[in-house]
Amino acid sequence: MTDATLKDTAVRRRISLPAIPVSVALAISWIVAMLVIGAFAEKIAPYSFTQLDLRNRLAAPGNVAHWLGTDELGRDVLSRLLVSIRISLLIAFGATAISAIVGTTLGFLAAHFRGAVEQFVLMLTDFQASMPFLIMALAVLAFFGNSLPLLIGLMGLFGWERYARIARGLAISANAQGYAAAVRQLGATPSRIYLRHILPNIASTLIVSTTLVFPEVILMESGLSFLGLGVQPPMTSLGNMVGYGREYLTRAPWIMLAPATTIVITTLAVSVIGDWLRDRLDPTLQ
User: Fold this and answer.
1) What HEC string does the chain produce?
2) pLDDT-derived band at 3, boundaries 50, 70, 90
3) Percent of the chain with pLDDT over 70
């Protein structure tokens, strides 16, 4: 082979994209579609999600006016589904971000100070892991009432102990390696060391953990809304729609099946992406 041929082959290898399995590509496409729907839900929806059509109560799917049918009050199921996707994704993204920030911060504090601070953080993580979160969430929402900011903040307390354990262990390992010690000897502040040097090196593991927490938050919010303690009317969410549709499961199953199917496919898509990222980012599997 000539030098030009070898050079062209090397260039093609550098710019070639990693092969993505069909299941992962479908999962990414679904998540992108959900994000687009969440961003433009009110513009895409054919009706307002609170608009009533009492003459078309419990209309079956397939008609021109209501593609996915209507509920017990004549509200368009498709319009409510689109808005529900926005609310559920808002809760899931907000809660996952809070969980990641809180857990990673506590993990870094434990790794930096060690001693009593580390023991206190580990005690909190053990307490959180042993506490039935659903029961705690039911108690908090029953006592303080329901509001979207409170629900997002409460969901943000779910799963933070995983981030804390991962961040603590990886930060301790990074501190024992040369690059963190070298930056410290150059006079860098602890915040710069952890945010500019340690965090980028452990971000791949935290991202994989995020893909595990995200679907669990969606399911947890759906469960709370199903029990009537999550998103409250007139606002709607996927779990809220499932909760209202259970009373009409035999007469109008489409009320419940549409949001339930969306929940299942969305959580499955995020899990598939998470498994793929774990395999791609794990150096032992390369």
Assistant:
1) CCHHHHHHHHHHHHHCCCCCCHHHHHHHHHHHHHHHHHHCHHHHCCCCCCCCCHHHCCCCCCCCCCCCCECCCCCEHHHHHHHHHHHHHHHHHHHHHHHHHHHHHHHHHHHHHCHHHHHHHHHHHHHHHHCCHHHHHHHHHHHHCCCHHHHHHHHCCCCHHHHHHHHHHHHHHHHCCHHHHHHHHCCCCHHHHHHHHHHHHHHHHHHHHHHHHHHHHHHHHHHHHHCCCCCCCCCCCHHHHHHHHHHHCCCCCHHHHHHHHHHHHHHHHHHHHHHHHHHHHCHHHC
2) low
3) 91
Cβ–Cβ < 8 Å for 249, 266: no
**pTM for the structure as a whole:** 0.82
Q: What is the pLDDT of residue 29?
A: 96
pLDDT tens for each residue of 175-218: 777 777 777 777 778 888 888 888 888 888 888 888 888 888 88
- Look at the block and give the residue holding tokens 């399995």: 21
> How high is the pLDDT of residue 15?
44
CA distance 20 to 40: 28
